[in-house]
């Protein structure tokens, strides 16, 4: 039956964990014994199912505002593992980019991580142990046109992560980014039939020539693969990994 799992007794907050990558990270940390705090939107039935499956708490806070971030941290209580994962995207030319979308993307994808980190760090310092993991993106390392806010926020969170790593280097707290390429989510899968119809392409052409044009492996990253990397970064053996930005992008940023 084995001894205690390596995250037994640890409490992990994963923002944006009601779907996709965040949910997979929460599941991976739960499998290693962490108590989980979920955050993110979803209907009552979904939230009830997820909190039941993971024995988790859920704090329903909107992280585009400072008040929402503070509400989340008050609801979560002290956490040992902080995963900043909630994020959103908007695609438009810079001279047409809606200003409210810019503000929301910078707030959620970047500023929220500052608020959650500044509030989490005192407990982690007192405990002499902590893990901060930020879901960045291949777009923290490289750009694509029409994604000005997203690319700016993701480059920003990569810089914030490195700064946290240096400030906290002697506290037992590590701070790292995980930078996925194209991840297979239901959101991506659902786009395929419409794209096939709109462009007159086969399913394989849509996947390889449209969705995976930048991903040399021509395979989507699976949410579970991101979850496994996050769990690894929480292991004792990862205690000297800090300030790193781990690509999991099928070779995208190697080009
Ligand atoms: P998703 O849409 O499946 O999940 C986003 C999560 O964030 C959901 O739980 C949602 O409820 C939550 N959320 C959205 N707005 C919020 C808000 N204002 N306050 C609190 N929570 C909010 O997306 P995903 O693909 O799993 O993305 C998760 C992270 O991974 C994001 O930071 C995204 O930028 C990053 N990422 C995704 C991909 C990809 O291909 N899917 C690639 C690289 C990076």
Keywords:
binds nicotinamide-adenine-dinucleotide, Rossmann fold, alpha/beta, globular, 2 domains, single chain, 9 helices, seven-stranded parallel β-sheet, 255 residues
Structure in words:
The chain is of the alpha/beta class and 255 residues long. The protein folds into two domains: 11-183 and 222-254, Rossmann fold; 184-220, no CATH class. The chain contains nine helices and seven strands; from the N terminus they run βαβαβαβαβαβααααβ. The chain has helices at residues 20-31, 44-54, 66-76, 99-127, 148-167, 186-189, 191-199, 203-211, 223-233, and strands at residues 11-14, 35-39, 57-59, 81-84, 130-135, 173-180, 245-248. The chain has a seven-stranded parallel beta sheet, sandwiched between helices. Helix 2 links the parallel strand 2 (35-39) and strand 3 (57-59). Helix 1 crosses helix 9 (223-233) and helix 4 (99-127) packs parallel to helix 5. The chain is globular and about 55 Å long. The model has no long low-confidence stretch (mean pLDDT 95). The structure holds nicotinamide-adenine-dinucleotide.
